[in-house]
């Protein structure tokens, strides 16, 4: 297999998506960045069904960064694992042969290389709040997005088959069986293994409409979540809202019927280009907004009262060497959650960013969240992953046959601990 050959997506030829992302009719907004041209073009490994690939691809398309779009299969998964230590997408290889992983540090890396049009607000308070919201969209919206994909037999049957055909077509078995095995793995790990039971089901189910309503309220008077141009928080919410809620048939019906403004926003973000302001030439020139839209209250409340306490509990369980823990707050009780080391890293980064604000900036952040309680950002957690996630990644050695076999068939478990 030639790893540089874009694989075929079942919905539309991959090549057309690629052409959209580097459209020669658009002005080259990155022409002032001569240094970066050494890294181009990027090989971007992704999956057309994937949460984080959707976030990542929307960002690259908006920034008009040229890339080869390569859909992963199991063999490419081994290659990605060999260079990144994870069988996870998206992953990027630069033209110099350096590797990058994880959308959060990747966006920071690309923002430094392509500063012409920034998606992260320059104001320190807005920047910190954007990072916090990004983390919430990445990590806390994940459970509900997995639930809406895998809970209903109709949706899960369709997705299992689609993933079998698109991602595991090189497993030595019929794609229908590959799809069924993958469906079983996802349900076991991300539904029953991630706190879903009769008591928690209503919270997990309702999380999608809750956040969709918040986005609808925010979008009442503006095309994007922080005003008239896309920013980090738009790309972050594209994680759950694009490849899961917009593309998967069962949650997509909920979006069409109940949240049409969110449906319009998804297509707006997907089709936005930094060189092409929406409708009005004045649009896109101003600063980002200050999170004052009332819809943010729903999300801020969740962050203060549920998500940060959860991150603290996860970090405490990690420090105590546990592999599972129960988490309870007023809104939900989640039993036997896996300890996720990566989320200790998320907390560590957020705490560092919060601590590096000046006193008045920290007070402005606190004031935004004060109606809902105190921001818990003082665990001093040490995740052990900071070095691992420095980009570009340090080159890794060859891997043995056993590791190859594992990466091909099993992948890297979500709750894998790397000390
Ligand atoms: N924190 C990572 C998460 C990447 C991730 O979890 N990717 C999922 C797809 S959305 C994956 O590749 N999973 C592979 C698997 O479950 O085997 C990021 O932001 O890129």
How do the strands and helices of this protein lay out in sequence?
Elements: H1 14-21, E1 42-46, H2 51-63, E2 67-71, H3 74-84, E3 91-93, E4 99-101, H4 103-113, H5 124-150, H6 153-166, H7 175-191, H8 201-218, H9 232-246, H10 249-258, H11 260-271, H12 296-319, E5 324-328, E6 333-338, H13 341-355, H14 359-369, H15 401-409
Parallel strand pairs: 1-2
Antiparallel strand pairs: 1-3, 3-4, 5-6
This protein binds glutathione (GSH).
Written account of the structure:
This protein is of the alpha+beta class. The protein has two domains: 14-120 and 391-409, Glutaredoxin (3-Layer(aba) Sandwich); 124-372, Glutathione S-transferase Yfyf (Class Pi), Chain A, domain 2. 51% of the residues lie in helices and 6% in strands. It has helices at residues 14-21, 51-63, 74-84, 103-113, 124-150, 153-166, 175-191, 201-218, 232-246, 249-258, 260-271, 296-319, 341-355, 359-369, 401-409; strands spanning 42-46, 67-71, 91-93, 99-101, 324-328, 333-338. The strands form two sheets. It has a four-stranded mixed beta sheet, sandwiched between helices. Strand 5 (324-328) and strand 6 (333-338) form a beta hairpin. The chain is globular. Bound molecules: glutathione. Glutathione (GSH) is lined by residues 50-52, 87-90, 102-104, 138, 411.
Summary, kept brief:
By secondary structure, this protein is of the alpha+beta class. The chain contains 15 helices and six strands. It has a four-stranded mixed beta sheet with strand order 2-1-3-4, with helices on both faces. A two-stranded antiparallel sheet has the order 5-6.
